[in-house]
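A note from the maintainers: we've had questions about how concatenated examples are separated. There is no special marker in the raw files; a new sequence line simply starts the next protein. For clarity in this README we add a label.
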Amino acid sequence: MLSFPNISYFFKRKQNYQLPEKFNSYILKKNIKEKSFYIANKYRKELLKDKTLIKITDFGAGSKKNKKNIRMIKNIAKISGSKAKFGLFIQKLIKYFDIKYALEMGTSLGITSIFMAYASDNLQIDGIEACPEIAGFLNFKRKERNIENLNIINNNFDLVFENNELGNKNYDLIYIDGNHRGEYLLKYFKILKEKHCSNPCIIIIDDINWSNDMYQAWKDLTKLKSASFLNFYRFGVIFLGYNFKHGVFNVKFI
């Protein structure tokens, strides 16, 4: 049985009070929603009702709850899709920090991608998805909605980096949600930090408590000096190059 050291998150005092005031009054406040949220959330709700069957090819750690390679869209959305409150959170990050270039590693059905795309007309997004069928599904949905600021790269993470498919692009926001294995997380973080991070840059890492090795990788990352780390238990946020207080802060949504 796996043990999760970060279970202590639930017993520790939350440190929202140590964050910049805007985090608590705007970014983390779930009752403040804009039109872009409702438009993107409509897509999420549609997927949760979609009974279309699709063939899945897993290149990373795979799903813990569904090992079948033929799955229903609504089940994929339920298990691996982002929650509405996370979509709201990432939209507010984009708006508040005026993000211009974003990278999403592991788009799946594109719930987070769509939230990001609707957040700002000035945002350009590159999304990486290894599974050909899912990448094709998202491309169809993107075109159906006339979303032009989202580009899908259909390849696995390692080959994207080995083939230099990102070129010399730098990103203001990077969301890592795929290949949930600690050693790969550290490997990708190193590549991204050295080659593809703008200054400053925000990196969001999903499923930091997926397994012991993912949690340990997160702990290793928090040793990085001159950075700020927000621990939401399900995901972690790293601020590189921002003038924020250094440290690891346990945070909750208000």
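[label: protein 2]
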Amino acid sequence: MSNYLEMTDHGVPVWAWVRGVPVDPAAEAQLRNVAALPFVHHHVAAMPDVHVGIGATIGAVIATRGAIIPAAVGVDIGCGMMALRTDIPAARLPDDLAPLRSDIERAVPHGGFKRGGWSDRVPDRVATLWRDSGLADGLAALEARHPKLAGANSLTHLGTLGGGNHFIEVCLDEDDRVWVMLHSGSRGIGNRIGTHFIALAVRGIEHRDLGFHLPDKDLAFLVEGADPLFDDYLEAVHWAQSFAQANRRVMMERILDVLRRRLPPFRTDKMAVDCHHNYVARERHFGAQVWVTRKGAVHAGKGELGIIPGSMGARSYIVRGKGNPDSFRSCSHGAGRVMSRHEARRRFTVEDHRRATAGVECRKDRQVVDETPMAYKDIDAVMAAQADLVEVVHTLRQVVCVKG
């Protein structure tokens, strides 16, 4: 039996896994706006981490027939998580973890688009991957049709973390084994792709008689078979997803290199997880082939592994999907913000943040207060609300956290 609450207004219903977790009324309004669109299939699924986004909520799963809403995918296309288990026991970690964090910060560029890339020379491994994986040729083909995608620091961002809520963590599981976990996406080029196609979709509907009311211009859509941009957008999204996966893989390799220099020899095992949470895919649900956009949601097919992180100072979870059809076989991608970054900076002090992250080697300055644990929903309440979507395989607690 599913644990969702149903919101019905006009259009399809919204099924929301939000029992015991707060939901911003503005997020509810965005969910209802999406549900009113005539091409949305069956229902809209809202995950317990749901919160306000641009046009479409973050933490939403939307199935559509014959159309895709670029803003329902978002601008951090392919953003996701990667986690890898090692055989390192906690006892082998140094007492002082600050040098380890510093080494990781030197090995993986982090920060915003301008300062968070390879500033001197792109490492040979990154340049080779860019060329041999087809990423370079794929982007060149996209740029030929959409010149505005050029100049987005794509190569210099491959293997880099970014800022905001992106992070690298060294964690311990319930058996005190060391894991490496990271959260990042397609960086500047993914943002450029998302922004570009959202703008094109908005422009495309401005003078078109839709035959229905579009409640938010950011819900502008591309029509399959009728809009020449539809196929271009799909190609760009799939390219960005590949870039994001390659980005996470490069970072993981560099972090493991740091651990190998700092720690005695160790092995990694087969418990590795890599999952997108901002993407679009062709799937079958409720009797129809549809386009499924997950904006801040993870595919949770039966037996499929996923990652649901908490926040700085909170637990994270490796989960196994239950394949619940009511959620379009999806689960949350994290705890979800409970307040804006501006509100977090206004409400909390550096001392508040230090207390909340006690025991974690991480930044404890004013620039990361907007990422403090209190800015997020209670991860345990989020997990309880989606007990019918996933089961917990491992519980992780971070000991080192790198933020952009």
